[in-house]
Design brief:
Blueprint (H helix, E strand, L loop, with lengths): L4 H5 L7 E10 L3 H13 L4 E4 L6 H10 L5 E5 L33 H7 L2 H17 L7 E3 L10 H9 L8 E6 L8 H16 L5 E6 L8 H10 L4 E7 L6 H6 L3 H11 L2 H8 L4 E2 L2 H9 L1
Parallel strand pairs: 1-2, 1-7, 1-8, 2-3, 3-4, 5-6, 6-7
Length: 296
């Protein structure tokens, strides 16, 4: 793997291991926002991303206005995956957009978005989400993707344009990035995607050397899982994501994987893991560091 040119731009050496400790799904429900607030104060996260169409977005925006040091991005959202807790687009209510299902919400799963949504409608929606976040007073540090949907080759141009037009970095792995396959793309999609990524890197877009994620399949031994994953962070810049939530009746009613989300939270609220991160040799950064590098 060649050296990531962003390291030098940000003042690091070619052998440094940088990690963005990133929380997804902020504002999806109250439990996700409370977890983010606790973890930010505790010091074991460096970034998060808000789901603008979700009910707890206004409270997330208020937290960011009151704490301008918070590193918060937009979690570009095109799906509403839960069975009895749904949300929809903020840019349109027209079925012709292909963004909504027969009940008027976002489609639950990625294939339905790929089959029905037009690139123009996706572009309008993600731009509307970013604009709403900015208008609400969030100093948007980056743009990433809920469930990886907008990073599909059909929509990736809309995703990138939303960031580059505002000099806001997108969460985007290099073609050779460790963990690239976890983006949820098929082998056929990956074959299409690889040359696109090489072209984007040649154009100078900020890109990542690694992707890693805490499990949502089970709630067992998350502290040691986190230690193992963090120990394997490669040289360069890694986006390390997890989905922490505090334990609430609402979360239990919404998410079948609620126990894993609570385990994510408990692991990163532990002094044991905090001490491990501090002594790991990792350089913890947020997305603002990438944003400032490209704006220079």
């Amino acid at each position: 793997m060649s050296v990531n040119p962003l390291l030098k731009k940000m003042g690091f050496s070619n052998s440094d291991r940088l990690v963005i400790l990133h929380t997804d799904d902020i504002g999806m429900c109250q439990a996700s926002l409370t977890a983010f607030e606790h973890l930010w104060e505790f010091g074991t996260i460096s970034s998060g991303a808000v789901m603008v169409p979700c009910p707890w977005f206004p409270a997330t925006a208020q937290l960011c206005r009151e704490n301008p040091q918070i590193d918060m991005g937009v979690h570009a959202t095109l799906n509403a995956e839960w069975g009895n807790y749904r949300w929809g687009p903020i840019s349109t209510s027209e079925p012709e957009s292909g963004l909504i299902d027969r009940d008027g919400y976002f489609h639950q799963w990625r294939p339905a978005v790929y089959e029905n949504a037009s690139p123009a409608a996706v572009a309008a929606e993600v731009n509307a989400q970013v604009e709403r976040a900015l208008a609400a007073g969030i100093d948007v540090s980056h743009i990433d993707s809920h469930m990886g949907t907008i990073m599909h080759p059909k929509f990736v141009q809309s995703y990138l344009q939303t960031g580059t037009s505002r000099l806001i970095p997108n969460m985007l792995p290099r073609a050779c990035a460790q963990g690239f396959g976890m983006m949820g793309l098929s082998d056929e999609d990956l074959a299409v995607y690889t040359p696109i990524l090489y072209q984007l890197e040649a154009q100078g877009l900020p890109m990542l050397d690694g992707l890693a994620a805490m499990p949502l399949e089970h709630a067992d031994d998350h502290i040691n899982i986190a230690k193992k994953l963090l120990s394997e962070i490669p040289v360069g810049i890694t986006h390390f994501l997890f989905h922490p939530s505090v334990d609430t009746p609402e979360l239990r009613a919404i998410a079948p994987d609620w126990q894993a989300r609570v385990a994510n939270y408990n692991a990163f609220m532990s002094t044991e893991l905090k001490d491990f991160i501090q002594n790991s040799g990792l350089q913890v950064i947020g997305y603002r560091a990438l944003r400032e590098a490209i704006r220079k």
